Amino acid sequence: MKRIASIAAAVLLVFGPVATGQAGAQIHERVYPAPKAPLNLTGLPPAAAMVTVTTADGLTLRGVEVAPRDGKPTFLIFHGNGSTANNSVRWLSPLVAEGYGVVAAEYREYSGNPGRASEKGLAADADAFFERARVVAGAGPLIVVGHSLGGGVAFGLASRRKLDGLVTIGTFTRLSAMAPAIARPLLTDRYDNKGAIASLDEPLFLIHGDADQVIPYAHGEALRAQAVAAHRTGALFTVRGAGHGPDSATLAMVLRAIVAKVESGEATAKVALPAHVRLAPF
Questions:
Q1: Which domains does the chain possess?
Q2: Is the C or the N end of the chain the one with fewer CB within 10 Å?
Q3: Model-wide pTM > 0.90
């Protein structure tokens, strides 16, 4: 995954001979380094299927879904800025094998989808995939997961919809915090995740590796501190030694624990976790 922090590379061009419009294009490419290859089911679990949704502004987008089995919860997952819906399903494959449902959203401009990515555009995409995920989940819980930039998409969705649970992985406080001060006036998108916490009405679960070199661990700590100050319920799961995302097996163990908390209605309920994961409730 390309780093959101590479926005800084584009900024160096702004104060040379490059026009502002060109600088904006450079920044867009770094915030949204969209893979172009169309989605396919190669290498995905046999139960995976393509899904098509239509956004409020009229775009038809393709994603990937797996229906839940035996009353298991469903995860609606928003990937990071350089990833794809295919990668989301692969990441959650241990849970898919256990019968959990997954709706892996894909964004406009990504993986052959039409449109141009932006915070407003991805919000419309999230709403469309949320409606599909509610159908897939049926009467079961629907837990929204966002990785990195996808955490910003998930926070935005939570500000508009009531979720059963919100999970972010390696997510930043604000997009502007990932750029030098001199570049911030050029950012057209905000993704103010820290500011969104005060209005949450669902439990919030933060997952962050303490060796994350893309979105530093301090961002996870800052989001937890804001949640405490805002009297939200949830927890920070610190994955010791992990980088910008835990491995599939570790993520599966943490998400199982989160499901247990959501289903019990007790965000502070005790759960079993691997030794390298530290839990800090709030």
A1: 48-281 (3.40.50.1820)
A2: N
A3: yes
